[in-house]
Structure formats: C-alpha cells, structure tokens
Amino acid sequence: MTSETQPIAKTPSQEMRSQLLKSKTFLLGNLGVAFWALCAIAPGLIVNRDPAEQNLIKKWTHPFTDGFVLGTDRSGRDVLSRAIYGAREIMFIAPAATILGVVVGVMLGLMMGYLGRVVDDILSRIIEALISLPVILVALLALTVLDAGRATIIGVIGFLFAPLIARTVRAAVLAERNLDYVRCAELSGENSLYVMFVEILPNIFGPIIVEFTVRLGYAVFTMAGLSFIGFGTQPGSPDWGRTIFDERTSLLSNVWWPSIIPAIALASLVVSINLIADAIQGVVDK
Fold it and tell me: Where does the sequence pass through the membrane (predicted)?
C-alpha cells in the first residue's frame, strides 16, 4: 500500500518570491541596480583612474581615444571613472531617504487606518496639506535654511515622501482592519500596537514594497535635481547631477560625452528601479 506525498503549500511570501524570480523584468532591473550598487561600494574594481585627476593636455578627448573609453571632460578627467564614482552619493542618499520615508509613512498610515476617528482626521488634513506642496520647492527652501549636508538631504527627502507613503498604507490598512484575523486579535485582548505591527503590517507588505521601489526612483531624481543646482555636492564632484550641470555648456562646443554619459547612467538606474517596481506591482495585483 503506497501513500501519496501531498505537496507543501507555499506561503504568500514564498509564492511572491517564486513569481518574481521567474520575471525577466524583475531580474533585469535587479541586474542594473546591482551594477550601480557595486560601482558605489567598490568603484576601484571597475575603473583604475582617479576621477579627480586632471590633465588639460587631454582636454575633451574623444571616446575610445588614447585609452579613454568614454573620453575626457573640460579638465581632462576620465569620463568613465567619473560616471562610476558618481554613483556613490545617489546610491547612498536615495535609499537612506526612501527607507526613512517608508518607516515614518508606514507608522503614520497604520495609525490613520487602524485608529481612525480623530487621529485619522487630524493626520489626513496635515498630510493633504503637505502633499499639495511641490516636493522640489519645499526641499530647496529647507536646504537653503538648513545645512545642505547628507543628513539634511536624507531627512528632507524622507520627510517629503512620508505623507505619500502614509496615504497608500492607510488605504491598505482600511482594507484589512475589519477582516476576521484582526477581530480575533482584538477579541483576544491584544493592544492596538500589537494588532497594527504584528497582525496587520505583515499582510500589507506587498503595497509597502511597491511604494518603496517607486519612491526610490523619485528619490534618485530628486537627489540628482538637487545636485544639479548645487545642493549636497561640491564643484568638481563626480556626482551625476553635479557633472551634468558643470558640463552642460560643453554641448555648445559639440562635446556631448561629458554631460550625456552621466545622464545615461542616471536614466539607467531609474529605469532599473522602475522595472523592479513594475514587476512587484504585477505580482501584488494578481
């Protein structure tokens, strides 16, 4: 007499992971993000030239000339090295700011969605007021008043993203708060903090992850925009936004590579993040 082995059912998180690993869009996006993360962590493994080394004799050397794969800029600095090293600031500040925004936004969204009533009314009005303000203008005002260092930029971007994330989390919590597992926890005498963070939070990870990836792309653009106008970086920095600003006038002399290469690098990172976000959104919506 033989007994058939029943297949072990996958948990929702395991099923989600399995579907994502089968997605070419997800894998391609992760490949792009992983490359730029490697550039930020260990740029010396990819290039061996100092991004700050100047050689005016080699000014505006064309790509694939004299050993310079992507040419040189107005100061004779290697464009490839500067593109690789330029990932450092964005790959540190953008994820840190997004994580801060998600943490604050999730806490606010949980309170708004679960506690409701007065808490929801007060926080909703504040969030609606904050969302109506242009992100880049608020960031400029804050950084003009405060010291435009790394910590300040991370705090400002995180603060501006938190209301948007809170609104998404609130909607997810409202869809969960009246389900049986929440009622059972409440009838068991569990306090509000336990219900929010132990019962509800694990069940809304999907929307939170989607929101994280979407905001990460916006954080990259926001950081690049601030760098472009001179916040958070010093003149001569290889940061992509700063480099595009410094080299923009080279286009008038038909020298495109010093400014176009960092722009392509920036675009490739944002596209990679968006590919991941689209793949996760597709799995969550199923």
Answer: 26-46, 90-114, 126-146, 152-173, 193-210, 216-234, 255-277
